[in-house]
Design brief:
8 helices; about 0% strand; mainly alpha; about 180 residues; Rna Polymerase Sigma Factor, Chain: A; Arc Repressor Mutant, subunit A
Length: about 180
């Protein structure tokens, strides 16, 4: 790629020059896969991210978004890839948190009298985890699991709006999950 200047490459990409596209793809593939390994990305995911990144590179060239590119094409491509890697992490974290919250809700009986001496192991974990939560989280979760809807909880606890409450509830569930499952 060094024989081309970035501006010439951008112009060739704008014209959808397949030889230029293929050269950029091949010249950066192995380096990108190694780069992605540094972020502990599975190899098959690295290929998907690389493919998406190279497509974004070409789209940005065609749409005139990189006419004044100050870096090399490779640097720009890796920046796109890094963004996509972080995006993949965020999406995976959302899925994991959602799945873990669903696991807690399905497997832990929230309608428990904690004074009962015959608690199951899961109920004991829940009870102990719940004790470690802050007052605000306890209030939110107690009201939620006692059947109050979000609008009622918003009014009772004087939240500014329902979205703030949703975020708080999500943080509380995440915190409870960390306590119960000893996540760091």
């Amino acid at each position: 790629m060094e024989e081309f200047e970035s501006k010439n490459i951008v112009e060739l990409l704008k014209r959808k020059d397949s030889a230029t596209f293929q050269k950029i793809y091949n010249d950066n593939l192995k380096a990108f896969i190694s780069f992605a390994k540094g972020y502990h990305i599975e190899e098959y995911d690295s290929y998907d991210i690389y493919h998406d990144s190279i497509m974004v590179l070409q789209e940005n060239a065609i749409n005139g978004k990189i006419n004044d590119l100050k870096s090399s094409i490779s640097t720009y491509l890796f920046a796109i890839g890094k963004y996509k890697i972080f995006h993949a992490f965020r999406e995976k974290a959302k899925v994991n948190i959602t799945n873990d919250i669903e696991i807690i809700e399905k497997n832990f009986d929230f309608d428990v009298d904690f004074d009962d001496e015959k608690l199951t192991n899961q109920q004991t974990l829940l009870k102990n985890g719940f004790k470690k939560l802050g007052k605000r989280c306890k209030d939110v979760l107690e009201l939620h699991y006692s059947g109050h809807d979000l609008d009622e909880i918003t009014d009772i606890l004087k939240y500014s709006d329902k979205n703030v409450l949703k975020s708080q509830k999500s943080r509380c569930m995440k915190q409870l999950k960390k306590i119960i499952f000893n996540y760091e």
